Amino acid sequence: MPVCHTGTMPFRFKAYYPGKSPVHRCDPRVKIALLAALSVCAFLVGTIAGMGALALSVSCCALASNIPPKALVAPLVPVGVLGAFALWFSAVNGAGAEAGAVVALRMLVLVEASMVVALSTASSQIMGAIAQMMAPLRSARVPVDDIVVTLTLALAFIPAIAAEISRVRCAHASRGAEAATGLRATLARWGSVFSSVFVGLFDHADSLARAMDARAYGAAGERTSLNALKARPRDAAALCLGLAAMAAVGVLLS
Asked: How does pLDDT run across 85-100, given as a tens digit for each residue?
């Protein structure tokens, strides 16, 4: 990623932190299934005690993952602002502070759980898990492989977009375009940045299309995987334990 020495802060994005923690070694299908179950449970629970229990469980998983705390806490800052607004709005609207606190905790829990799954699982593993979980849909002629490839490319383009924005901003800053201040100048500057970024992304997309065509993507035949996922007893135990814990929270603390 380009580094700008003109005072402009470059965009930095890291989507995966390798490791050997229990969270990293867990089957990605189990992590996706537990995240989906947690999302349902978080909307069913309507008490502070229940959301606190879910938040504690997610915090324990975050600590067990050994992911740098900064990577996990940074996404919570804007969510915390939204949570504070929800708390204030609930108090002013007459719904009560407890209802606002539940909404704020729900947002924090869902975002933090999503970050734990995303940062502890490589994008290739996530896409492989989604492909296997959607495999039964092939009998209904659903283009599972095309959906998975589309999601993979979308994830791969996130750091590419961040790098492109950083490169364009550094180029503008080196020409003095970052010196102007004020709302109108800021909007004009970002408009110029995004127009340049879109042109660069079209070039990337064209190169990607040519590469896929050269590799005969879309040819007839069933797609295979180099590293097929295999369920292990500890993964089944983790899935059952997680589902049982969320069921208990939903029944006892909802």
From this structure: 888 888 888 778 888 8
By CB atoms closer than 10 A (0-12, 13-18, 19+), residue 168 is buried
In angstroms, rounded to a whole number, what is the distance separating the alpha carbons of residues 19 and 113? 17
Instruction: Enter the tokens of residue 188.
Output: 């004009």
Q: For residue 157, what are its two tokens?
A: 């383009």
Q: How many DSSP H helices and E strands does the chain contain?
A: 10, 0
Q: What is the pLDDT of residue 125?
A: 87
Tens digit of pLDDT for each residue in 171-210? Answer: 877 777 666 666 777 777 777 778 888 888 888 888 888 8
Say if residue 144's pLDDT is above 80: yes
Name 244's Cβ contacts closer than 8 Å, sequence gap at least 6.
none
Contact 119, 75 (CB under 8 A): no
Distance CA 19, CA 123 (A): 14
Say how far residue 4 (Cα) sits from the centre of its chain: 27
SS3 call for 28 = helix
SS3 annotation, 103-117: HHHHHHHHHHHHHHH
Query: Alpha-carbon distance 63 to 69, whole Å?
Result: 8
| DSSP output for 3-25 | ---SSPPPP---------SHHHH
Q: Could you tell me if 37 and 54 are in contact, meaning their C-beta atoms sit under 8 angstroms apart?
A: no
pLDDT at site 1: 46
Own/partner pairs, 2-5, CB within 8 angstroms, 24+ separation:
2/163, 2/166, 2/167, 2/170, 3/170, 4/166, 4/169, 4/170, 4/173, 4/174
Tokens of 103: 């909404």
If pLDDT is split at 50, 70 and 90, which confidence band does 253 have?
confident
